[in-house]
Structure formats: C-alpha cells, structure tokens
Amino acid sequence: MNCRTIEHTADIGIEVEAGSLDELFAGAASGMFSLMVAPDSVSPAESREVSLQAADLGELMFLWLNELLYLSGANGLLFSSFDVKRIEGFALEAEVKGEPADPGRHRMRQDVKAATYHELLVEERGDGWFARVIFDV
Amino acid sequence: MEGLHRVSEYKWEIPRTAKSGMRVPGTVFADEELIALADRDRALEQVANVAFLPGIVFRSLAMPDIHWGYGFPIGGVAAFGPDGVVSPGGVGFDISCGVRLVKTALSEDDVRPGLEGLLAAMASNVPRGLGTRGRIHTDESVLRKVFAGGAKAVLDMGYGRDGDVEHAERLGSYEGADPDKVSRRAYERGADQLGTLGSGNHFLEVQVVEEVLLEGAARDFGLFEGQVTVMIHSGSRGLGHQVCTDYLQVMDRVVKKAGLELPDRQLACAGLGSREADDYLAAMACACNYAVGNRQALMHWTRRSFEQHFSSPERALGMELLFDVSHNVARFETHDVEGRRTEVCVHRKGATASFPAGHPEVPEAYRGTGQPVIIPGDMGTHSYVLVGSSEAMAESFGSTCHGAGRTMSRSRARKTIRGSELRQRLASQGIVVMAGKDSLLAEEAPEAYKDVSRVVDVCEGAGLSRKVARLRPMGVLKG
C-alpha cells in the first residue's frame, strides 16, 4: 500500500494505491488519520466494529471515512489500526482500533472536518486499486 | 479558463459556452491580480460547474476572495428559483461558519501593557484546539433548545445579556429549524462542543481600529480610531460537519435516481419543495443556530476574560456586540430576478450578506445605515468592517466577500514557513500569537492568504460593499 498527500489550495487530499480493495480502504483510513495525528503516538487499545452498505464504491469510500470521523468526533477517539475484513459488492466490514484523544500525549496535526465527494475516485488500475479523496480541513 | 473575459474594471465573465451544460454564465468580481490567482487552480472551473445546477437564476457568482473549494468554489454565490435546488455542498461542512465583532471602550494603550496576560485569560477560559470538549453541559433537551433558538437559547442559559441578539444577523436565530431532522450522530457530535473554538482558521483576535474609512457609518456602528475590538471566528463544529455529511449522502442518491448529470459529485442537490430539500434546510437551520449559539458562548467567555483581567464589569468596559455574520449558508430571500420580485434560495459558500440601508433584514439598530459586514483578514495584516450596499442587491444577491481567501496550500505553507519564526516576526510587528502548534500557525501565515485590502478594495470598486474601518491585530488566539 502506498499513500501520498496531494495539494489543494484550501484543503488537502490523499492518493492511495493498493493491491486489493481491502488494503485500499484500510490505507485511505490510515492516510486520513495520519493527517490528524502522528499514527505512532496512538496505541490500538480500544476497538470498534464498522459495518456499511453503499450503492457504489465511491459512496462506500465516502461513508467509510466519514463513519470513522463520526466515531472519532462523537467519542473523542483517535484510530491507528484499520482491519478491513471484507468488502463484498458495495458492503464493508471492518474493525478499527485506537484510544481516547489526549492532546497532551498525542502528537496532534490538524482537524479533518469531512471526506468530500469532490474529485473522489475509487478504481481498478492494472493489478491493483487506486483511490483519491479530498478532505475539508 | 476558456472564454474568460473582462466586462468591466472589476467584473469578469465565464460565458455559457465555456463548458457544455452551463445553464447561466458565470461572473467573477476581481481585478487582474485576483483573477490570475483564481485561474491558477480549479476555482473558475467550479464557478462554471455551479452553473450546471437546475433552476439557477441570473449567474453563477464568485466574490474576489474566490479560491478552489469542493463542489462550489470558496467565495461562490448562487441563487435558485422555485424550480431550482438546494445543495449541501453549496453551504459546506462548516455550516454557518462566521464572525462576530465585539466592541470595547478600551484604547490600545489600555490593553497593550498587559496583552499577554489578557490572552492567557482568554486561553484558559475558551476551549480550543483538536480534541477539546466544551464547558457547557448539553444533553439532548439543551441541544434541541439551541437548535431551535440559536443565540437567544444560549443567552437564556446565562451566556449573554440584553443587546446581544438585537445585534446579530436575523436576531441570532434561523427560521425553519426542526431538531427532529438532525441525525442521532449529529446530536452526539454536537453534545460536547458547544462553546468551543475549534482549530484550523478559527480564532479569537484582540484588535485595534487603525483607521476609520467611512465616518458616518463608523459613528452609527460605534467604531472610532484607537478603539480595541475582539473578533470571534468559529462555526458549527462537528455537528455541522455531520449534518452536511448526512444530507450529502441523501442527495447523492436523489441525483442518481433522477439521472441528473453533474460535473462534480459534491454538487449533489435536491429540488426545492422536495422532502429531501425541506429536511436538509430544517437540519441546516439547526446547525446555523448551533453555530451562532457557539459564537455567543465564545463571546461570553471573552467578556469574562476581560472582566478577570481588568477587574471591571464587562459593561463598564463597553463590551457590546457590533454584529454576527454567517458566511456559509443557504436561505430563502426575496430578490429582483429579470425584473420580478422572486423568492430564491441563495447559497453563500464563503460569502457574506451585504444588505443596504432600509433592507428589511437589516436589524433595526442599523436599518438607516446598512448591514455591518465583518471581514477577517490574516493574522499579520488587517481585518475590515464594511457596510452593505444597494448595488450588491443588483449584482450579487446582496453578497460580498468573506475574508482574504487562501492562495497557498496548507502543506506548502508548512514546508516553506517556520511557525516559530513566524511567531517572532509577528511579535516584532506588535502582534502576540498564542497557538496550539507551530505547524498549524504556519498554515495560517499571512503569505498563505491573498491581500485582504485588495479584496475589500475590489468589493468596494464593484459596488458590493463599502469600507467602514480597518482593524489591526494585536493579539491572536488560535485553535
């Protein structure tokens, strides 16, 4: 899996390449939380199950990343481990792990308000998968 | 951008032929330098994309602080007739992000000597930054009151006083709010963030009126040279983000079902009068009320901080609210469209209402002068108070700019600017900055923004608003 950030005048985006769809979704989640906090400062102490159904892969990516932002925002959690167990059709099941945010201990980076649909892309490329997501920060 | 051409000194047109599918032309208010900045990224294409939306009337508009957003450009304004749509992306995730300005009876000489202590008091009273929780206990019944009542509901909880809501847009409360249209998830995210500043470009700033530029309006607004003011910039926090996310999903499916072809999925929309549109507008109004209530609570703790620091009641310090504006919002307003008075749904995505004297939506206190427009600049230069104009009613559905507008990406700012050096540079200009992190400070560096003075000059040149006073920062508290 390979993830890089891309430039946007007001906001920020990521591009992810992975060998499988499961890895792609895990990589996008990891890329998003890396914008928010240094991942090695967050230990995978608590876990949450995520189960989603969408109408297409783009919507599934939008729902997945925003679901994690909801879980983070509503519960004051930061995540650092993303195990996408199954993607079948446009349904996803995953377990994510993290711990309560502690600004004193975690190396916080920036707030991510939401994953947007703007220029959102999830597609098969050659032997693997590619995704691009732009965030509102 | 293909076909972009100048039609007058501060007005540029994107013709309908620029992109197949545009229903109306685009107009961008800018001078040569600002249009060149807008043409560097995808902002002008986004002006054209908005023109694809069904029922758009007049033109797809952009203010001089335009820059690349998502869906709509930041600085975008569009209005839709009865057969048109509402688009959550045309409001944005930070619903009702906005600014309020608090006046004082203090001078720079009163505040300068103890400025760091004053900022420290504000920092200890105002929850800010990532992962912070608010000081107000908000169970569901409290949230419902705030969703329905806005600033007044927060004032009634003890965070404010007489004279506050009378000096806010729509008296600090949006019509049509229905707390039942807000999802459980949004309630959860809103529960502990009321009265928190947030991070990113949100701030509390102690400023001084450097120069009065329009005597009569400044007098009516109670502004004078040398006067200290406090600017508060924040929005609807996680609650607004969740409302936008929820309804984007709903409207994305509406678009798909209707077979509507849009150039950007973020422009998802629903027809005005449909259940989806009504539900979104009712939930959006709740988020607007939460945002105005949030700024009301932030003002309360700003007043407490001044009281602690100066050992004097805030009334004696003259801490009156000048005005509160939202710059991410959609709402129904009456405008002249092709010679007829028409109710349209105006979207302002990074744009401020700019209503003239006599307009029924201008609070009584300012009805004879025009609506105050609060424009936050960047922390190293200036902010402005403007006043609405009648030309704006004809040109831009009564809208003007909302700030300086970014010109440099956040990651490039972090790479090229050192937060610690920036802090020192600002200190040498007499500007004290308190920020959670130096890297976040670098993202908000003055050079990451356009020249706000140029932006407000273009607004004045184009007739969208008039400059009333220029404010200079003294102390900045960042999230």
What does this structure look like?
The complex is a heterodimer of chains A (137) and B (479). Chain A has 137 residues and is α+β, with helices and mostly antiparallel strands. Chain A has a single domain, classed as Archease, Possible Chaperone, Chain: A, domain 1 (3-Layer(bab) Sandwich), CATH 3.55.10.10. Chain A has helices at residues 21-36, 57-75, and strands at 2-7, 12-18, 46-53, 77-88, 91-100, 114-115, 121-125, 128-136. In chain A, the strands form two sheets. In chain A, strands 1, 2, 6, 7 and 8 form a five-stranded antiparallel beta sheet that branches. In chain A, strands 3-5-4 form a three-stranded antiparallel beta sheet. In chain A, β1 and β2 form a beta hairpin. In chain A, α1 (21-36) runs parallel beside α2 (57-75). Chain A is globular. The model of chain A has no long low-confidence stretch (mean pLDDT 95). Chain B starts with a strand and ends with a strand. The model of chain B has no long low-confidence stretch (mean pLDDT 95). Chain B is built from 15 helices and 19 strands. The longest helix of chain B is centred in the middle third of the chain and has 36 residues, at 275-310. With 479 residues, chain B is an alpha+beta fold. In chain B, the strands form four sheets. In chain B, strands 7, 8, 9, 11, 15, 16, 18 and 19 form an eight-stranded mixed beta sheet that branches. A seven-stranded mixed beta sheet of chain B has the order 1-2-3-4-5-13-12, sandwiched between helices. Chain B has a two-stranded antiparallel sheet with strand order 6-10. Chain B has one domain (5-407, 449-478): Alpha-Beta Complex (tRNA-splicing ligase RtcB). Helix content of chain B is 33%, strand content 26%. Chains A and B meet through α2 of A and β4, α7, α9, α12 and α14 of B.
